[in-house]
Amino acid sequence: MITPGTPLPNRDEFRQVDGGVVLIFFDFDGTLTATPGDRAARCHKQAELCGRAPMIEPRLRALREAGATLGIISKSTEGTIRDALQAAGLSAHFEAPVVGKAVGFEGKAGIIDDLARKGTLRKVGPRGLAPGQAPGHRVLLVDDDVMELERAKTWGLQTYAAPSVGGLREEDFDVLIAALRRPRNLPKVGTSPGMKRNSSQCTSFMSASRNDGLSVLSFSKPAGNGKWRNLILFSGEAFEA
Fold first, then answer.
1. Are the C-beta atoms of residues 78 and 101 closer than 8 Å to each other?
2. What is the sign, positive or negative, of the torsion defined by CA atoms of 163, 142, 96, 184?
3. Contact between 121 and 128 (Cβ < 8 Å)
4. How far apart are the first and last CA of the chain?
5. CA neighbor of 62 nearest in space, from 166, 180, 159, 167
6. Which of 19, 24, 74, 168 would suit a FRET pair with 30, their CA atoms being 20 to 30 Å apart?
7. Are strands 205-209 and 215-219 parallel, antiparallel or unpaired?
């Protein structure tokens, strides 16, 4: 429960973006525009976005060229957002859903997860999410509200914090573009939680394929009097039996 005396999370904690992102949801007020939503009059939002468009447009294009599909999720109404995008000449860059009135008990992350599980994001870009697939690290939320970002992080989404005032800057877009251009750093076998392995536990492994095409690794029994500990890998996820 957040009270007036509760300190907000550190904004810098939400600026580490891995590779592997295929879908970016931007907040609108205070992220694409300059003024946070609790201070912005509707009549000023369009003017702000138009004024920022010469800086934003080429960077949105660069994000798309780097492989991301872009969407918007905001507490503003969808009509307000789309009118501003049209006036600023930015509409063509947003092929993912534009979600207005994004208010819910589980925050924007819960809404994004619901969209993914319903299959709404299945046709988003060349690498859209499969129907029913949780968004996870493939989705990035960019927002000036650190409470929204904290909730998103607990849902497994990647996050990037816009400045508290003034909206995204050139250097913020540079960070996002650079992150998209590198592959995500996946943990190696034996280094991730629940996948500890050393010479006393197993000495070899063999690979096989299931009928459904998933790759399987099955580790052999350890030498000596060691106990069995089967570790089976399916498409990068680990399960202990």
1. yes
2. positive
3. yes
4. 39
5. 180
6. 19
7. antiparallel
CA distance 11 to 177: 19
DSSP 46: H
Mean pLDDT by 10 residues, the chain (241 residues): 66 88 95 86 89 98 95 96 97 96 93 88 58 70 96 94 95 95 55 37 39 42 46 42 42
Place of tokens 């010469």: 54
- The model's pTM is 0.71
> pLDDT tens across 152-198, in order?
999 999 999 999 999 999 999 999 999 998 765 544 434 333 333 34
Which residue type sits at 96? A
Torsion of CA 109, 168, 128, 95, to 10 degrees: 110
- What amino acid is encoded at 145 in this protein? D
Locate 20 and state its tokens: 């592997």
Q: In residues, how long is the chain?
A: 241
* Look-up of token digits 């780097």: 66
DSSP code for 223: S
Domains of the chain (ranges; CATH) run 12-180 (3.40.50.1000), 187-241 (no CATH)
The alpha carbon of 133 is separated from its chain's Cα centroid by a whole number of angstroms, namely 14
What is the reported pLDDT for 8? 82
